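Annex B.
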Amino acid sequence: MQDFSEKIQQAHDEKLGRHLVANINIDAGETLLEERPLLVAPHWECAQLKCAQCMEESYVMCRKCQVFPLCMDCSQHNDFECEFFASGAGSRICKDLLVKNYGICALLKLLLLLEDPATRADCQTLFQRSVDLEDYRDGEGMWQEHEEQVVRPLLASGLVEALPTQQLTADVLHAHCVRIDCNAFEVTGRDGETLKGVFICGAGLPHHCVPNTVVALDEQFNMKLYAAVPLNAGDVIYNSYTNPLMGTSQRQHQLRLSRHLDCSCSRCQDATEMGTHMSSMKCRECSAGFSICEIGPDGSGNWRCVDCNAILPAVDVHEVLAEAGDALVDAKGELQVYESLLVRYQQLLHPNHFLLLDIKQNIASILRAAALMNSMEQPCKKLLARRVELCSDLLPVCRAVVPGISKLYAIALFEYLLALVELIELQFAESDLDKKEYVAQLRIGSQVAKEALDLLRFEPENSAEGYLSDRISMELERIDSDLMKYGGR
Ligand SMILES: [Zn+2]
Ligand SMILES: [Zn+2]
Ligand SMILES: [Zn+2]
Ligand SMILES: [Zn+2]
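SET domain-containing protein SmydA-8: predicted structure tokens.
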């Protein structure tokens, strides 16, 4: 199921548990690990039945076991799970088990993988890290949802009696749910729907908010892990399970909820967040200074201006952030509301603050959607120019938070490219740009496209990023042909 490169080896220590380290010096882009998923399953809340084999929508069931959905294109699914219900211990269980309780699908698949001697050992590697059930029950996480959609229906289904050696209790089932969540990546099916893909090695990598690897996932749900930056022999292989465009407090909150982990990586301990100031506030005392959090990023410390040393109490910061967070939720996709929020919070927050970035991304995507919808009408140059400006604001932050080969930065470059090309073509058509100015802008576009393609060159062809590369190449061809036409090359 896993294919390790000889460039890495397994290691173990108290702090990180089982992990991987580089054996030799490794170049950026080199493949470290390739892995098939242990299981691919719908999200807990998914109500649409999906084929047990290919995970596309299915409205028909497997004729043999009559329990799992199986689409018209697939002739069979996992032998063990099919036999279990067709003629094995599960044959007396009601056939509408999944139709009635589709939320149990992921856990059911895991239980059958555990029952199957061929896959049991692989599953058990997931169990090496303990699950703190008390913590999970009291937290604001998924306990209630698991209880209602998964654990209770499963306990009532007769499956527990059909799998006696597993000694399944509500607690065991809850712990399995947590293990599935903690070891899953969001994978995308061919129909564009997202699913949970559980990987044993890939998902077991320790977390760092500035990962030194990139995870690539193709349409068959295969994972490839490659180096994002050059690695030295002995370096620990890290992955990131959070969104790098979130500020430290947001990332830590999300990591606690989704992965039950407290991060203390170099970015989390750096109040300037790698010099981006993504969580910094404007100083209220002096005009030019920014306040950064003094003690741990858990919010226990006050904020102090790096210029004038003025203190900004933590409660004030939290108040601003909570208020802005609520306002963002209330904005509900309204362009003007976002623009006025931007004006308001630019007075209080560092220009790179994660909340401002969030607002800017919202505005840019509204403008992009509007451009697509009104493609018949003349797009407004002012709005196009605004989109270019917002996309360009995001670039330096995206570059800084994920060093090396970065899909995040590649996508940000692509968004910028689309907006730029649209704007300059219109400006040239309306003679706002002369030929020389147009050519100069096209050259910028060409550079941006090449940089984005370069960042995506290690991604599989049959993946979302592979298709993005094709799209950027098309854009680059158009730019190059205009450069030939007007630039005399
Ligand atoms: Zn299928
Ligand atoms: Zn079947
Ligand atoms: Zn961190
Ligand atoms: Zn100050």
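Residues 283, 285-286, 289, 305, 307-308, 310 surround zinc ion (ligand 4) (CB under 6 Å). The two ends are 50 Å apart (CA to CA). Further annotation is deferred to the next reporting cycle.
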